[in-house]
Amino acid sequence: MSPKTQEPVITKISDLPLDEAKWITLKRIDYVDQVGKPRTWEVATRKTRAEKAGVDAVAMGNILLHPSRAPATLIVIQYRPPLDAYTVEWPAGLIDADETAEEAAVREFKEETGYECKVLSVSPPQAADPGMTNANMQLVMVEVQLKEEDAEDMEGPEQRLEDGEHIQRVIVPLSEFYDRLIEYSKQDRMIVAAKLFHFAAGMHFAKTQTYGPL
């Protein structure tokens, strides 16, 4: 990853002809609703959906286990031009054409974080933003076994980032997960990704709710 020399700056926003779009296209859906009325819907679709997996992307929920420290998770922070802001996320990426979700998760986690991981579970396909797009994803939970000499504040193993990727890694103890995301959300030009916050909020709710055992 090249060293950061400035903050990202959007220089222009313009309409994009569909025949020039490389990754995304727009479609119109004509359908008949539940009471027999004809309707239309505009939808954005990816051009890159993997045929083997039938799913666009994976996100890697992760647990870092250290011999003498409490369990933690690794989050990534990167600039997202559609938001003109930095997002706090779990590592994630598109599934290649010949990959399964599990294979993509292991590859992407290694590329973005530098760590080898073991897959623990794979979710069913999940809708990303069903009011706007048919984009879907799977949450792959992975485990990383750290060594005693792996310090919490170390830079970590070398990332394998593509040109244009600038990804900051942050290790957060699970006991501080929810509170740290709240603090990030208060920072200027910083947004916490929904799927990450929902997971942390679920953990927080399970610990703080007063409805009895869950």
Automatic annotation (TrEMBL):
GO process annotations (BP): nucleoside phosphate metabolic process; ribose phosphate metabolic process
Signal peptide: none
Entry keyword set: Hydrolase
The keyword Hydrolase belongs to this UniProt entry's keyword annotation: yes
GO CC, any one term: nucleus
A molecular-function term among this protein's GO annotations: ADP-ribose diphosphatase activity
SUPFAM superfamilies assigned to the protein according to its UniProt record, in alphabetical order: Nudix (SSF55811)
All copies of domain Nudix hydrolase, residue ranges: 55-194
Pfam families: NUDIX
This protein's name: ADP-ribose pyrophosphatase
Organism, scientific name: Cercophora scortea
